[in-house]
Amino acid sequence: MNKKETGSYYTPSYLASFISKRVLSHFEGRKRMSILEPSVGDGAFIFELEKAKDININLTALDINEVELKTASKKWSKKTASFIKTDFLEFSTDKQFSAVVGNPPYVKKNILTSRQIELSKEIHSSEKLTEASVKNIWTTFLVKSNTILAKNGVLAFVLPSELLQVKFADEIREYLKKQFERIEIFTFNDLMFECKGQDTIVLFAYKKSDDKGEYFANISSKEILEQNSFVLKNNELLVTSKVKWTHHFLTSDELIFIDKLKKELKTVNDYSESRPGIVTAANKFFIINKETESQYKLSKYTKPIIQKGQFVNGSVVFNDSDFKQLEDDNLPSRLLQLNEDDRVSNDLRNYLKQGESSNIPERYKCKIRNKWYVIPNISVKPDAIFFKRSHLYPKLLKNNSNAFVTDSAYKISMRDSYDLNSFIYSFYNTLTLLLSELDGRYYGGGVLELIPSEFKKLPIPYIEINQSEFEKFTTYFENKSNIEQILNQNDFNVLNSTLGINEENIKRLTEIRNKLKKKRLRT
């Protein structure tokens, strides 16, 4: 099994050491305790726990992989341990553990077996959690671990930052708040694992504590952990509000300031309709370059398409000339759009055979089609495009070409009485870009994403501009060195006109946005 299937990402020794020492310090003075590790992996935690001298640890270690379990068992020299080959979801015990520690697997629901999904639903249901909270196996590890903790027990897990920011984790966060008197969240400036794109946190949850509440610390280097030189801060407003816990470094004053402005604004959904772009189910096969189109004589079956946001860097309007540049650069820019009644030529048949040899017809979204190669719901080309993922700033641009767009973007059309040019101009202000950071979620490598519901709810201070002003804006945008130049030009015009925000408060918004952006980009 590969790492994507097993969800196995191993814990660096310094992090395993920090977590183990912190858990054991909670039980200082105790002579004995019981610890469960539900997914031992390479045994990083076992290696660290084995070093404990002043406390007798009764260890129970589980793993679904027998080879890894044997490797881990060699790191424990004491007699007080049980190493059991099993899936934690299947594990049954009457024992209540002093602590549950580890780095549970990260496996999405669509990769789990039907048995694992069934068990996950049962575990969540027994704790009065909905089926919606069963999205990834780490959530079930978290829930089940809580059920086998002693009344004064401690839970310590390495987890994906999804816990702090995605919608399905709202319920899990509320569950944790009810089950534990004290919660500590450690976020990091560096990716902690070898897996690209997986941002991680560390959670400590205490059943009993004299200092109750939710506490946060951001760690900028491993030396800070090793020296215990961090400061855990309580952020009560963050926890009681709907702001994502990733933004724990914002102050109460900043959160109140933003929320007050936000309440005065209409949202993207008030001004426009937005829908996801075309779902091909296999972009590498269905979106081809001119060279492949020519090789297989497919031009009569193709339509122009923008595959991803990085193909439109630097502009606020996408024209036919921009599309021609994609073609000239031999980038994938032609959508293979076949109809049910199309006659399949020999050349087309040869191309389709390539897809069949790559098992594309077996992909779920292809499998449920009448013909696996006929993409449904092509609809019409969008008036404007918002790319759901971005790096330095979110991208909204007018589509003056004949190009369609993939589901890497949302297709925008304006509601009656609102103007597209004005909408795009108004979007580029510090407050809206700040709220994109606040309401979206981010991933390793600094990728910012707004899912459809987050984009629709994004507040915009809308002002009307004329065609001449939009043309000037377009030219200035294309010649900018960075997005800050656009914000400096637009902010007073947009924010002062709509919300009466003065220069001092625009500067304050800029500082908050920079703080959020730096955390995401790890600068």
From TrEMBL:
<feature type="domain" description="Type II methyltransferase M.Eco57I C-terminal">
    <location>
        <begin position="243"/>
        <end position="495"/>
    </location>
</feature>
<dbReference type="InterPro" id="IPR050953">
    <property type="entry name" value="N4_N6_ade-DNA_methylase"/>
</dbReference>
<dbReference type="Pfam" id="PF22837">
    <property type="entry name" value="M_Eco57I_C"/>
</dbReference>
<keyword id="KW-0808">Transferase</keyword>
<dbReference type="InterPro" id="IPR011639">
    <property type="entry name" value="MethylTrfase_TaqI-like_dom"/>
</dbReference>
<dbReference type="InterPro" id="IPR029063">
    <property type="entry name" value="SAM-dependent_MTases_sf"/>
</dbReference>
<keyword id="KW-0949">S-adenosyl-L-methionine</keyword>
<dbReference type="InterPro" id="IPR054520">
    <property type="entry name" value="M_Eco57I_C"/>
</dbReference>
<dbReference type="GO" id="GO:0008168">
    <property type="term" value="F:methyltransferase activity"/>
</dbReference>
<protein>
    <recommendedName>
        <fullName>site-specific DNA-methyltransferase (adenine-specific)</fullName>
        <ecNumber>2.1.1.72</ecNumber>
    </recommendedName>
</protein>
<dbReference type="InterPro" id="IPR002052">
    <property type="entry name" value="DNA_methylase_N6_adenine_CS"/>
</dbReference>
<dbReference type="Pfam" id="PF07669">
    <property type="entry name" value="Eco57I"/>
</dbReference>
<dbReference type="GO" id="GO:0032259">
    <property type="term" value="P:methylation"/>
</dbReference>
<feature type="domain" description="Type II methyltransferase M.TaqI-like">
    <location>
        <begin position="54"/>
        <end position="190"/>
    </location>
</feature>
<keyword id="KW-0489">Methyltransferase</keyword>
<comment type="similarity">
    <text>Belongs to the N(4)/N(6)-methyltransferase family.</text>
</comment>
